[in-house]
Specification:
By secondary structure, this protein is an alpha+beta fold. It has helices at about 15-25, 30-40, 85-100, 115-120, 150-165, and strands spanning about 5-10, 45-50, 55-65, 65-75, 105-110, 125-130, 140-145. The protein has a single domain, classed as Gcn5-related N-acetyltransferase (GNAT) (Aminopeptidase), CATH 3.40.630.30. It has a 7-stranded mixed β-sheet, sandwiched between helices. It is globular. The N and C termini lie close together (about 10 Å). The mean pLDDT is about 95. The chain binds coenzyme A.
Amino acid sequence: MSGIEILPLVKRDLKRIVEIEKESFPEPWSMTVLRSEIEAGESRRYTKAVLDGELVGYLGLMFVDDEVHINTLAVVAEHRQHGIASRLLLDGIDAGLDRGARHATLEVAVSNAAAQALYRSFGLAPVGLRRGYYAKGEDAIVMWARDLDAPQEVTRRTAIKESLG
Ligand SMILES: CC(C)(COP(=O)(O)OP(=O)(O)OC[C@H]1O[C@@H](n2cnc3c(N)ncnc32)[C@H](O)[C@@H]1OP(=O)(O)O)[C@@H](O)C(=O)NCCC(=O)NCCS
């Protein structure tokens, strides 16, 4: 899918983000949490994917030492499986590398096969389980990608980039 722009997420996007959170997650983030995230400064990077003027996805990153934590990622249901999350992640990882991150990590619900497949395609592998991580009691898988700047990881992301056209 061409014509996707990746732009910084700003306060006036939050109303739409809250709606997408509710459609996408059993435990959606509130406006208050989202606002505090985008106002948290340099330790965070929030971006949105825009298609024909419409906000169709977003990614929230947090930087801790040399790690980039994928805090949140969602794509509007009718625009899924067109490479939008991949574009957001490619942009986010490049930005993370630019500011010194070397590794990536996240938690994902054990039942969320789509997200796990996406993250695996980016080289993130399961390294552990956090039992009862989510408020409703579901376990989370912890995923890690080490050495994002290693040649095989750069090659992996270049292949994804090329497949997106
Ligand atoms: C997970 C999510 C962000 C993926 O967004 P997307 O834009 O559809 O992802 P992409 O199109 O970039 O998919 C890239 C790869 O991820 C995997 N993938 C994505 N959706 C998948 C699905 N439903 N089933 C299996 N694999 C899937 C595939 O490997 C895919 O590559 P392919 O198209 O070459 O097969 C989206 O499904 C979503 O918003 N889900 C609800 C919120 C969520 O779970 N967020 C993650 C929280 S940790």
